[in-house]
Structures are given as C-alpha cells and as structure tokens.
Amino acid sequence: MDETLEPGGTPTQRRTPKLAVKTRHVRALADECSQMPAEIGLRLDRVWSLALRAAHRSTIGFAMSSGIVASRHPKSPVLRFAPSPNGLLHLGHALSALENEALAAALGARLLLRIEDIDATRCRPEFEAAMIEDLAWLGVTFETPPRRQSEHLPVYRDALARLDAMGLVFASFESRGELKALAAAREAETGHPWPKDPDGAPLYAGSGTSLSEAERQALIDAGRPHALRLDMAKALAKVDRPLTWAEIDAGGVPTRTVEARPEAWGDVVLARKDVGTSYHLSVVTDDAIQNVTHIVRGEDLFQSTAVHRLLQELLGLPEPLYRHHRLVLGPDGRKLSKSDQAEGFRALRNRGASAADIRRILGFG
Fold it and tell me: 56, 102, 121, 196: which has the highest count of C-beta atoms within 10 A?
C-alpha cells in the first residue's frame, strides 16, 4: 500500500494506479574572527535584524480574514527546509535554513526537513549526511525523521495520473538540443524572438501536442526517450478564477497579493522517463501531504510559484503563504550555486568560523 494524495491535501493509504501515459555587501569577518580570510567577500541582497511580530498575531487568521488564501490549512503552522543532497550546503542554504528557523520560532510552528533527492544521478548519501551534520552544527533543529522524496515516488505518479486523467499531460520526444534548434528556426521564420521562460530557457517549441495518441504510444513503446509535459493552454482553461499567492514578511504577516502567470513557463515538464516526476510536481505534492502552511525560500524561486499555484489549483491542494527571501551573492554578483562549485559553509567552519559567526554573517547574530 502506498501513500497517496487526495484533494485537499489529505494523505491516505491505498493502491497507486498505474500511469496511463507509459544581498548587498557583507564585510569579511577578519576583524571578528582572525582565522577567517578576508576574501570571503560575499554580498547579500540586504542584511537586517529580524523584527519579529508579536506572538499573539496569527498569520493564518490574518490571511484568511483578508480573503487572501483558502481556509484549508491546519490550525498549527508548518514550515519546511528542503535542500537537495547534490553537493555541500553553501551560505545560501544556511540563510534559507535560518530564515525558516526564525519564522518558525515567531509563529510557534513545526519545522520539517525534506530531502529533495529525486535526481538519482546527482544526489548522493554522503552529501545528505554532510548536509544534516552541517545543519546540526549551525544549530538549526528539525522534526525527525526527514522526508526523502526518493521514498515516495508512487505518490508523485498518482498526482501525475490525476493530471493525465484530466487530459492535461502529453509526451514530448525532442531533446533539449532539438528544442533549442526548433526555437531558433521559429525565430528565423518569423523574424521575432522566440519567447523564453523566466529562467531564460526557450518555451516548448516541439510537436508533442499535435501527435495523435496512437503516434505517441508507438514512440513510447519503441523506447524513445521522452518527457511528460503539462499542456499549459488546456490547464489554464480549467481554472475558473484568477491565480494569486500571498507574500509574507519576516514576521509571517501577508504584505501583498501577487498575480500568478504560469503561462510564462509554457508547457512545463512534469516527469521524465528516467525520473518519473519533476521538482514542480513533487514539491506541491509534498507540501500538501506535509501540511506545510508557510513556504520560505529564495527569491530565485519567486517566478516558479506561478506553476506551483496552478498545480495546486488543478489538484485541489491547499494554498500556502509564501516568503521569498534575499539571496547570498558571490563576488561576481551571481547567486551562490552548487553547480558553480560554490564554497560550502563547511569550508568556513574548517577555517575556524563558529556557528555564531555564520549566523552573524547572514544577519542573524
């Protein structure tokens, strides 16, 4: 029996059906910690001391009374920190963990740790172990045990099957290189730039939606590599109200309502043959199953929230509150990234930094 998800975010136990479709500048701490080199030279979008709101002010109650969010949240607030074990944690991860810790403390909330390890080719057990050790050293505590996405693939297949049953999923067989070439060809034909998603990638320009069901199934049966995508036009046609989300401040109080524009992402990938799910599908499913009420993450994921709100609406899942915090930037002005070999904060620890030093660097001292 597998854990699965029903509308409203209730986890149950039943058999999983088979899928039908096979920051500004931070000064170095040399004057505070002599063992630490001045070349740390990191920049933060901005640094401030958190002025937490009075504990008696209920974020969820405020949001519901303002008509900003649906009222399907549990009474107790729940937050989660959800890194991927595909490298060592850097200061950007430390900042996000501390932002979650601070808001959880302000709200008296549960704080969960989720291991987002669906990418089996890059995620490794040794990185997970190092990540958990580094978070413990930093002094951030979570409820145990953590949720590992790799242990819950059937529930993501179930969510995908529900979208497929609505006629919203199609198979695409083009490689990334082929899609870039198709986009370039469209630009040459029209003389106009082919649209790109908020991350700068060309929108899907393939022919997946024009294939007949028999043609798609023949390619799948032949073993052709493929991705399963959300038909964005059909998905939006099923939504009968404007999509928005509520952004909250550092104390958990809603400050503005943001219009969600998922069409900016085009026909997003929901699953690949070798993985069976995607970040977008897994994260909204897990947030609902874990009853997450407040999502605190970096502002680099701000635009992705539009896709998440669409999936929540289609699957009948609760709508959390969101806080997209500042990023830690490197000397080149770009956000720290494991893919760019950003230095882990473990290296700072090995050079003599204390957990208090790391917290002070990030504005939590």
Answer: 102
Mean local confidence (pLDDT), 197-226: 94
- Tell me if the bond preceding 37 is cis, omega within 30° of 0: no
Q: What is the pLDDT of residue 344?
A: 84
In a domain, 79, yes or no: yes
**Cα dihedral: 126, 292, 108, 75 (round 10):** -150
The CATH number that applies at residue 255 is 3.40.50.620
Domain that holds residue 296: 23-148+242-260+276-361
| Residues 98 and 140: beta-carbon distance below 8 Å | yes
The full DSSP string for 66-123 is: TT-S-S-S-SS-EEEE---SSS--BHHHHHHHHHHHHHHHHHT-EEEEEE----TTT-
| pTM of the predicted protein model | 0.81
Domain for residue 307, yes or no? yes
Residue 179 CB: number of other CB atoms within 10 A? 17
- pLDDT tens track for 22-51: 332 222 332 333 344 333 333 333 322 222
Q: Do the domain assignments include residue 338? A: yes
Bridge pairing between strands 227-230 and 169-172: antiparallel
Domain total of the chain? 1
Tokens representing 342 are: 């950003």
- Helical (H) or strand (E) element with 254: strand 254-259
Burial class of residue 34 (count of CB atoms within 10 Å of its CB; 0-12, 13-18, 19+): exposed
- Cβ atoms within 10 Å, residue 206: 19
- Please provide the DSSP assignment of 124-185 as one string: -HHHHHHHHHHHHHHT---EEEEEEGGG-HHHHHHHHHHHHHTT-EEEE---HHHHHHHHHH
d(CA 87, CA 76): 33
Highest mean pLDDT among 33-47, 69-83, 272-286: 272-286
Longest dimension (CA), the chain: 69
pLDDT at site 98: 98
Reply yes or no on whether the pLDDT at 99 is more than 60. Answer: yes
Which residue type occupies 233? A
- Interhelix angle 125-138/91-107, rounded to 10 degrees, is 60
Q: Evaluate whether residue 207 is within a structural domain.
A: no
Tokens linked to 346: 């473990």
